[in-house]
Amino acid sequence: MTQTPAPTPGPSHAAVTGRIAFQGEPGAYSHEACKRARPTMEAVPCRTFEEVIETVRKGDADLAMLPVENSTYGRVADIHHLLPESGLHIIDEAFVRVHISLLAVPGTPLDQVREAMSHTVLLGQCRNFMRRHKIHPVTGPDTAGSARLVAEKAEPGLAALASALAGEIYGLDNLADKIEDRQNNTTRFLIMSRTPDFSRRGDQMMTSFVFRVRNLPAALYKAMGGFATNGVNMTKLESYMVDGVFTATQFYADIEGHPEDINVARALEELAYFSSSLTVLGVYPADPLRAAQLG
User: For residue 184, which phi and psi values (nearest 5 degrees)?
Assistant: First the structure.
């Protein structure tokens, strides 16, 4: 059974300056997450999640901002496959409310807008507003990319659904703000670094890890028993196939607590006994919005 060793304590990341990589164009919601969570850092756009990870691994950026799940649409496809193999470590999480704005070329009144372009997912989140104002949805490349295209086309009848940040970047007027149907729509991001940091302690810490159970009867049930008996709250447990075969299953989990807490240490020890592999991906403070979102 392989298990990651405890990393040496790292420096606090609260005042880090440098570069943080994200997937998408400038003005994407991942870009907004970078500005909120690391306002002093330069945000670096990348085409894919793999490029984000590689940018950090090569040292061209200090941190990666990766979305892992949305409160409305569930987990981000493929991201859990990338995390264990990335060689990066989770040092923080960021919960970002998805507020959608209607953006148009300067001087356009709302009643002139006939079409709104955005990613399919975002179009589905503004149905009530679109119906009320008789605006036809148009599928675009993504949210920030749609804002860029609207600015380039400069057609008063065509608007974009994107973040207010995208409107600022591409010089568009914000005709309406927070028009999403669900006001609690939230995306959870993980901030990842080349080096781990177990040094921080706070009122609520989170630990994320992946594991594979041994080929024994009721192995998963027995592996989970240690968390129940030691009073450790598991906030997430997801399974996914690895290596393209049905018999190889890996589990991703988030728990409350720090590996040095006695009850967490005992629970992880019991998990390790019933697992063929166990890798801690990171230990980090819970975002203040976590309690509000889960409550």
Answer: -100, 10
